[in-house]
């Protein structure tokens, strides 16, 4: 298995993740350094998934199902550039890391609902949720960066989602722009230090610093609070990142719990996960954080992820319902 | 598309009816028209139009040669079409998606002009039929790169684990 070249892992990273992973640190690094098996999500809007699977297999592809999403498949054998095939360009599939399919599964949006994806680009989870809703209802897919929003729009178009509206706003301003309590479900897949992305590119590890983690955790907290304000009482929200640092995950969700959010353990069939941390470096956190989940690369041979499913109580005061 | 609002929509629907026998937007979807393009969006999403940079999917535009449907336009509207739909065999899909014209002369019941292409249940957008061939109108951004070698990703991974060259 590959190892990280000299200089990729900073000493401060090693010290922090050694504390986080304990005896599993070596295994964690081994899987982090491994090149991932690519995965795709078939698009039932454009082709029957069983027939499409047979069509791809007829062309020599070898696929293995992702247990936690019925249309997700690992590509054990397939084209080198999965993003340039005819099937990709027709929108018959989306190249999406298997663990990245988890947050929409945890949120489980239903047909006809109003759903917000507050940091949506490039659109893998947006288009997955649009598909889970049977192309009914409305998904507001927001990204603050116009360039990334263009990529998001292109993917929404390619996957053929008529129930998606793209907005280009600072997510923190959305409660004012869209109105509090307006959405049945909200996904806050927050920008993060992206340690989980290291399997694709080591750039995130080169850029990693504790200072950057702390800076981005402030943004994450603001986005999470904005998402929570946009959620109707009784609604569900997922907060997720593709990193494992507690300051970007449990510490952010702890702030939502202080606002009244109630963590709900997500039911994800076939996914191995660990409970969220309830203590870190001397800080005692809310025990209900154990109902959030950590996905380690060595658990399912995927990128790392953190996923918290939260419910807003029905009797919450102060949110203007839609 | 010239004109405004309802007039543009009626003009587009009339062209869709005339050329393809499409009677209207699919159930639950609203047709939005602008000067250049038409889009389909769910009725539930209409409440967010005021803040939207983009809503729903682009489905059609008028060209000097007639109406052009995007791949998604063909996917959403194609099942409602009653004429000028061309079924192509699977072995031509890569050629079409890589931007080639298709030499398909003498198509029975197909009038020269815009045609919707499909391969079984998969819709491939629209092209322009001149009686001898179908001119390709797949946008550059959507063209594919056919003929790629297949990679055994799991074998490559196993080799890497053993420290072998890949």
Q: In summary, what is this structure?
A:
Chain A is built from twelve helices and 15 strands.
Walkthrough of the structure:
- The complex is a heterodimer of chains A (322) and B (166).
- Helix content of chain A is 33%, strand content 21%.
- With 322 residues, chain A is an alpha/beta fold.
- Chain A folds into two domains: 11-34 and 100-311, Rossmann fold, CATH 3.40.50; 36-95, 2-Layer Sandwich (Alpha-Beta Plaits), CATH 3.30.70.1170.
- The radius of gyration of chain A is 19 Å and the shape is globular.
- In chain A, 55% of the residues are buried.
- Helices cover 22% and strands 30% of the residues of chain B.
- In chain B, strands 6-8-9-10-7 form a five-stranded mixed sheet.
- The radius of gyration of chain B is 20 Å and the shape is globular.
- Chain B starts with a helix and ends in a 5-residue tail after the last helix.
- The mean pLDDT of chain B is 93.
- Classes of the chains: A alpha/beta (322), B alpha+beta (166).
Query: Would you identify the regions of chain B where 5 or more consecutive residues have pLDDT less than 50?
Result: none
Query: Helix tally of chain B?
Result: 4
How much of the polypeptide of chain B forms β-strand, as a percent range?
25-35%
CATH class of chain B: Alpha Beta
Class from secondary-structure proportions of chain B: alpha+beta
CATH superfamily of the largest domain in chain A: Vaccinia Virus protein VP39
| Rg on CA atoms of chain B, Å | 20 Å
How many domains would you count in the coordinates of chain A?
2
Characteristics of this structure?
heterodimer; A: 322 residues; alpha/beta; Rossmann fold; Alpha-Beta Plaits; nine-stranded mixed sheet; four-stranded antiparallel sheet; 12 helices; globular; disordered C terminus; B: 166 residues; alpha+beta; Nuclear Transport Factor 2, Chain: A; five-stranded mixed sheet; 4 helices; 11 strands; 22% helix; 30% strand
